[in-house]
From TrEMBL:
Record's keyword terms, sorted: Heme, Iron, Metal-binding
UniProt key word Magnesium: no
Protein name as catalogued: Indoleamine 2,3-dioxygenase
Pfam families the record matches: IDO (PF01231)
Organism: Apiotrichum porosum
Length: 509
């Protein structure tokens, strides 16, 4: 039986914890939930949900196994029509319901309460989940967007989700084992593309969006750059599994090769990431961002949201965020960076984010984390200068991702708004630097332990360059974050502590 993972507001309310500056490397280790065992050392990856739409594989990686279902059956045409008319600017160029502030009223009047209890087709369930989460987020956040367009504040969202959205959304969420709220993989980003030419690869120029809030090119670019990055994650997943097998078999040449393949996969992915600047401009980000905010740790929903016909208790859920992407957590877990994250409330938020993704991704990441700890990936790498160099190069790709990403955050968000929390509910000035700082610490420590005289000559220059860069970046980041935090005050660093055991939180049984 599958039970939904609902994050309800705990009776005690939220405690607020402050973390300032860039976290240092002390104290460590507590963050890892991995418990190494002999069995875990040799255990191959067995997919526990092979029939799920999101099933990790060597070809599709973290994308769905089949392209998303773009067109709903005719019986859902009212919802389809509402979603088409909803965009800030419609396909014909005229203002849509969200632009005029008429979306909520149209949903109240037109949307039937679909009975989804008998729907069992996986593809249809995924498409219904995507579309219902778009309706739900637009409904809840429409007032915030109107307010933001007036005075750059968000005010309050709608605090109740009416039953014609809440009941079917909850039904479909239960069936696919997810929360009843918009998610990065299952709705906004990775289940929201169609190929222009189905015979050609999932590359940016061959992609169209299925749903959007704004109808603007910037939202199109924002979503589809994510998709075209994740298109390259199959090679990354395969190389990661080979690295684990190589350590278990004590096969150093195979390990070194797998690490190089991990590096080249991330290089490709990071290369596509760089295209974000041109495909989705920083100036356009605020025009659609409001609609991907969550209901947890956001001032627009101080008491959570009541789902009519579902529960009398309010729900709080994190918003859509790339933090729910699986490529960086895969590297964090494989290279045992997760275990080196500082023990603090920010790292707890990282753990919480990792529960907002398809259950198959969760299982895969957990497997990699446990097995990497069991076989000792980091220790194996550090035993040999060349392996340590390849390991360092792999961690350097995680750094490159997070460093570019922090630059995105500065240019797309920090320079544009003073709102202190990101769409996923993390504090804007402390959360990302927490992880970037930890990666730089891991690199500096690794670099310091490498014996240059034992390195192959062609690796010496690479190791030296990586070491110099990570040292300099840690210094710059620490200064930059301290300055920003002093200017903005503590709100941008505050963490709403993660509810450890929300009332209705349950594992899949
Ligand atoms: C305009 C571009 C982007 C902006 C402004 C942006 C912004 C953010 C912000 C503010 C967070 C903090 C978490 C939260 O939402 O509360 C975050 C997290 C994250 N985002 Fe993005 N993002 C962008 C593009 C991307 C892309 C293309 C990816 C690729 C998959 C991505 C992956 C991630 C990841 C992995 C995290 C977690 C970071 C960590 O573990 O340290 N983001 N993003």
């Amino acid at each position: 039986m599958i039970r939904t993972r609902l994050a309800r507001v705990p009776a005690t309310g939220l405690s607020r914890v402050h973390v300032r500056g860039v976290a240092t490397s002390l104290p460590r280790r507590l963050a890892s939930e991995a418990s190494p065992s002999v069995a875990a050392k040799v255990q191959p990856w067995v997919n526990p949900f092979p029939n799920d739409t999101f099933s990790v594989g060597p070809n599709n990686g973290f994308l769905p196994t089949k392209d998303p279902l773009a067109v709903l059956p005719k019986e859902y045409e009212v919802m389809d029509d509402l979603l088409e008319r909803m965009r800030l600017v419609k396909k014909d160029g005229t203002p849509g319901l969200l632009a005029t502030g008429d979306f909520g009223a149209a949903v109240d009047k037109e949307l039937p309460e679909y009975d989804l209890t008998k729907v069992n087709d996986g593809e249809l369930l995924s498409a219904l989940y995507r579309d219902l989460t778009f309706v739900a987020s637009a409904y809840l956040l429409e007032p915030c967007d109107i307010q933001y367009r007036k005075d750059k504040t968000y005010g309050l969202g709608r605090q109740t989700l009416p039953r014609n959205i809440a009941v079917p959304l909850n039904q479909v969420a239960e069936k696919i084992g997810q929360r009843p709220f918009m998610e990065y993989a299952l709705s906004y980003a990775l289940y929201n593309y169609k190929r222009v030419d189905p015979t050609k690869p999932i590359d940016y120029d061959n992609l169209e969006l299925i749903r959007g809030f704004s109808g603007y090119d910037d939202e199109h670019g924002f979503i589809l750059v994510h998709v075209s990055m994740v298109h390259h994650s199959g090679k990354l997943a395969s190389a990661s599994l080979r690295a684990l097998d190589a350590v278990a078999a004590n096969d150093r040449p195979a390990f070194n090769q797998a690490m190089q393949d991990v590096v080249s996969s991330y290089q490709t992915i990071n290369g596509v990431m760089e295209t974000m600047w041109g495909r989705s401009k920083p100036e356009g980000y605020m025009s659609y961002r409001t609609f991907i905010m969550g209901t947890k740790a956001q001032p627009m929903f101080p008491g959570g949201v009541i789902y009519e016909g579902v529960s009398d208790e309010p729900f709080k859920m994190r918003g859509e965020s790339g933090a729910n992407d699986s490529m960086v957590p895969l590297g964090d877990n494989l290279l045992e960076i997760t275990a080196q994250m500082p023990v603090n409330p920010l790292t707890e938020v990282l753990r919480d984010f990792r529960t907002y993704r398809p259950r198959n991704h969760q299982a895969f990441l957990e497997y990699v984390e446990k097995r990497a700890a069991a076989v000792g990936v980091r220790e194996f790498a550090l035993e040999n200068a060349n392996s340590a160099a390849y390991y360092l190069a792999a961690v350097d790709q995680i750094r490159a991702f997070r460093h570019r990403h922090w630059n995105f955050t500065m240019h797309y968000i920090v320079t544009k708004t003073k709102h202190p929390v990101a769409t996923g509910g993390s504090p804007i000035l402390s959360w990302l630097p927490n992880q970037l700082g930890a990666v730089l610490d891991v690199m500096n420590e690794t670099h310091a332990g490498i014996k240059y005289d034992e390195l192959d000559p062609q690796l010496q220059v690479m190791v030296e360059e990586i070491g110099l860069r990570s040292e300099a970046q840690k210094r710059v980041l620490t200064r930059q974050v301290a300055k920003l935090q002093a200017e903005r005050g503590e709100d941008s660093t505050v963490v709403d502590a993660v509810e450890k055991k929300p009332v209705n939180e349950s594992a899949y049984a």
